[in-house]
Specification:
By secondary structure, the protein is of the alpha+beta class. Helix content is about 45%, strand content about 20%. The structure holds zinc ion (ZN).
């Protein structure tokens, strides 16, 4: 635990107004759109359910792109597959994205034609290589999942599955393939930023993480194995780090170039209304109200989510984004120890 003490000249801003104010609870307007859906997949092997879960996410991201929404800025999607059930939890900061999700869930059709990427992705996730050895069985299980309807979990009563193990055999062979993959550390940060730039970076870096991951995933098969909060990567810097797994033959330099290009070409202006929705929601969302504790812990900054929101103007974001640097390195024990040391608060 590293203790940080203020110099006598510096005081936490705004604290006196909270003490003197007549309110202790911030006023909150909730604008986030959240969904939890479940699909019963009892007739399938877990492997195919897992593949379907990944294929669903990719198909939805494609759907967003086709409707002119960058899949890096819509909100977030979390899907999880079990032997008898697939869950999808989705949150949107923006009504257009939420409406598209509602349509997509009703269409309920993920094409089995675009399974190459999801298949490679589950291989990377589990460090295995999957091969379809029984196509008839595979397509029949995939179709059976596709035909099952998505249930809105809010409408469910209760049921218990006695056995969470699927008895249905997998149409895949799985080969241990750890040596086919490599882990790479990707950091993006600003150096010698002003206090306001560092403060804005606390949240902008969260959005950048999604933008970078989505962009990398378009070109290369990859999987995030770990990510950091915003922290001081080196002295006088602030940024975030993510550890991603790639195929063994991917070159560090290619990843570096791709991440740099993604940040450089990301159209802040075109996406600004989505970015604003994100920041507005972020400053209003009750479950993120404790984020300032993390900011203080890792960055020695005391601020509020609403102040961060006030900094998220188009000009500030354009300037901040132009200052971002990228560092990509091979994942080694030494780099992992360095990372852990920086985050050991
Ligand atoms: Zn997975």
């Amino acid at each position: 635990m590293v203790e940080y003490t203020y110099s006598t000249q510096i005081k936490a801003p705004f604290i006196s107004s909270y003490i003197e104010g007549s309110y202790l609870l911030d006023y909150t307007v909730i604008m986030i759109y959240t969904y939890l859906f479940q699909k019963d997949v009892t007739d399938c092997s877990w492997d195919v359910a897992h593949l379907y879960e990944h294929a669903f996410c990719h198909a939805f991201f494609d759907y967003l792109s086709r409707n002119d929404i960058n899949p890096g800025v819509y909100g977030f999607l979390n899907a999880e597959a079990f032997a008898h059930s697939i869950f999808v939890y989705a949150c949107f900061y923006n009504k257009k994205a939420a409406d598209l999700f509602e349509k997509f869930i009703r269409i309920n059709n993920v094409s089995e034609k675009s399974i190459d990427k999801p298949l490679a992705e589950i291989g990377i996730e589990d460090k295995l290589s999957y091969t379809i050895i029984d196509p008839v069985k595979f397509y029949s299980q995939f179709h059976s999942i596709n035909q099952a309807i998505w249930t809105n979990v809010s409408l469910l009563k209760t049921a218990r599955y006695l056995d969470k193990t699927s008895l249905i055999t997998s149409p895949f062979t799985k080969k241990n393939s750890a040596k086919s993959y490599r882990d790479i550390i990707i950091s993006y940060y600003i150096e010698n930023g002003t206090l306001n730039e560092n403060t804005l970076m606390l949240r902008w870096s969260v959005m950048l993480e999604d933008i970078i991951r989505t962009s990398l995933n378009d070109d290369m098969t990859c999987y995030v194995t770990d990510c950091s909060p915003a922290y001081d990567i080196e002295a006088n810097t602030i940024g975030r780090t993510q550890i991603m797994r790639f195929l063994r033959n991917v070159r560090i330099q290619d990843v570096q170039e791709k991440v740099e290009k993604t940040i450089k070409t990301f159209d802040v202006e075109k996406n600004f209304s989505y970015i604003q929705d994100h920041f507005n929601e972020y400053s209003n969302q009750p479950t993120w109200r404790d984020d300032p504790i993390v900011y203080y812990k890792f960055n020695n900054i005391i601020t509020s989510n609403s102040y961060i929101n006030s900094l998220a103007t188009l000009d500030n974001l354009l300037l901040l984004t132009s200052k971002i640097r990228v560092k990509v390195q091979n994942y080694t024990q030494a780099s992992s120890n360095h990372l852990r040391k920086r985050l050991d608060k």
